């Protein structure tokens, strides 16, 4: 997995999407690997399960969960285009970070 193992002390903001990259979800967690896998298996949240959001596109790591929550709130207020531009800076082909060949 491309993610660092979380010690529970840091915070992470992440973006998920569907196969066609038409729906975006922004989440926050202190256990990124576990949380992403939960989404992949349909156990992450009602929203992600409903829209089949299993493609991990982007993440940011912060020294604590409070900073990650603040960043999540900021990103949720961004326009869709801004969000995709941010993702494309580090993942220009919008590949699934957990399965880059897919």
> What is the percentage of strand-forming residues?
15-25%
Cα-to-Cα separation, first versus last residue = 14 Å
> What letter string, H or E per element, gives the SSE order?
EEHHEHH
Can you count the beta strands? 3
Report the radius of gyration as a whole number of Å. Answer: 13 Å
Overall geometric form: globular
Strand order, main sheet: write it out. 2-1-3
* Uncertain parts: 1-8
Overall residue-averaged pLDDT value:
91
Reported for the largest beta sheet, the result is:
3 strands, antiparallel
Given helix and strand content, the structural type is: alpha+beta
Quaternary status: single chain
Helical fraction equals 25-40%
Total helical elements? 4
Spell out the blueprint of helices and strands.
Elements: E1 11-17, E2 24-29, H1 32-40, H2 46-50, E3 55-62, H3 65-76, H4 80-90
Antiparallel strand pairs: 1-2, 1-3
Describe the protein in words:
It is a single chain. The protein has 102 residues and is α+β, with helices and mostly antiparallel strands. The chain is 36% helix and 21% strand. It is built from four helices and three strands. The chain has helices spanning 32-40, 46-50, 65-76, 80-90, and strands at residues 11-17, 24-29, 55-62. It has a three-stranded antiparallel sheet, sandwiched between helices. A hairpin with a 6-residue loop joins strand 1 and strand 2 (24-29). The longest helix has 12 residues, at 65-76. It starts with 10 loop residues before the first strand and ends in a 12-residue tail after the last helix.
């Amino acid at each position: 997995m491309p993610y660092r193992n979380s010690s529970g002390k840091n915070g992470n903001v992440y973006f998920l999407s569907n196969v066609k990259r038409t729906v975006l979800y922004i989440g926050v967690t202190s256990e990124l690997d576990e949380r992403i896998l939960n989404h992949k298996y349909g156990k992450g949240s009602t929203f992600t399960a409903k829209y089949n959001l299993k493609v991990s596109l982007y993440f940011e790591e912060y020294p604590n969960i409070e900073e990650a929550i603040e960043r999540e709130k900021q990103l949720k207020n961004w326009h869709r285009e801004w969000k995709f531009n941010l993702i494309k800076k580090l993942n220009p082909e919008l590949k699934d970070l957990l399965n880059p060949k897919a």
